[in-house]
Specification:
It is a single chain. This protein has a 6-stranded mixed beta sheet. By secondary structure, it is of the alpha+beta class. It folds into 2 domains: 155 residues, Butyryl-CoA Dehydrogenase, subunit A, domain 3 (Up-down Bundle); 116 residues, Nuclear Transport Factor 2, Chain: A (Roll).
């Protein structure tokens, strides 16, 4: 029986969450990984590397069933929202992708476009700075194959990677102004704060009342959100940082979270370019 290296947990959770897009699934993976560590006959020489290998393999296995679930998912799918303490630093195309940047909704959706193996290699190397020898062991592939996977993944990510992170105060001010306009039904005020090609992505999984398709365009998004807000008498709205971006948490009269809306801004930071609206109750338990 071995002593659990609990100091590894934050890093391992960060890896599993980015691999799976689900905090609940990441917790399950870590529980299984630490159980295996606890039951090992002898403590591994390098506990961190051993656990990284186990977590990576468990995530790859979990992604097989996740893919089947998403094919049957009702409406658009978004990652499970994750409360974060602050905004990430502004991305720099010449720097390694940071832990903070790699948790944004936009970045997690970029990762979804990669194959599971590409995602694993990219995260391990680019975000968590694991050497290729260790990656090869975790994936049971040659180092050369892992390097090929990494370069292919990096090309995909570089083409789609968000390049802008607004100042924290400016991000908060813009969302606050939008919330105020929404609360008063000021459609024109809402539209002025939305990019012309704004999209609202609703994720309910068929388990809550919501749009079933992406809503596009400033006028349609403004009208949809204004109409939704009119139905929420007795609710309260809290501002929070979720996945490194400003979000609004909508709570009912009993205090339960019914919606988390994450606001992503346009490249110049002047308007809202995307609203990720998560209403699937299975994804809101942490709130």
């Amino acid at each position: 029986m071995t002593t659990l290296p609990l100091d590894e947990r934050p890093r391992l959770f960060a890896l599993a969450y980015r691999m799976l897009g689900s905090a609940a699934d990441a917790d399950d993976i870590l529980q299984e990984a630490f159980l295996r560590f606890h039951q090992a006959e002898a403590a591994p020489d390098t506990p961190g590397a051993w656990l990284t290998t186990v977590v990576t393999r468990l995530c790859l296995y979990r992604l097989k069933s996740a893919q089947r679930r998403r094919e049957a998912y009702v409406g658009p799918w978004l990652p499970e929202p994750l409360a974060t303490p602050d905004a990430p630093a502004a991305p720099d195309a010449g720097e390694r992708i940071s832990i903070a940047e790699s948790v944004s909704m936009a970045f997690l959706l970029v990762l979804e476009r990669l194959s599971p193996l590409e995602r694993a290699v990219f995260l391990l190397r680019e975000v968590f700075d694991v050497d290729f020898a260790e990656i090869a062991t975790a994936l049971e592939r040659s180092e050369a194959a892992c390097r090929q996977l990494f370069h292919r993944a990096r090309e995909h990510v570089s083409a789609a990677r968000p390049r802008f992170a607004p100042a924290k105060a400016a991000h908060q001010a813009l969302v606050t102004a939008f919330l105020a306009a929404t609360a008063t039904g000021d459609l024109e005020g809402m539209k002025r704060l939305l990019a012309d090609d704004v999209v609202m992505v609703p994720d309910s999984g068929g388990k809550a009342q919501s749009a079933r398709k992406i809503v596009e365009g400033a006028d349609r998004v403004a009208r949809f959100l204004a109409g939704s807000t009119r139905l929420l008498g007795g609710h309260r709205f809290e501002m929070a940082w979720v996945n490194g971006e400003v979000a609004i948490v909508d709570r009912n009269a009993q205090g339960a979270a019914e919606t988390v809306m994450v606001f992503s801004l346009s490249p110049d930071g002047s308007r809202i370019a995307r609203v990720s609206s998560i209403r699937n109750p299975d994804k809101l338990r942490a709130f």
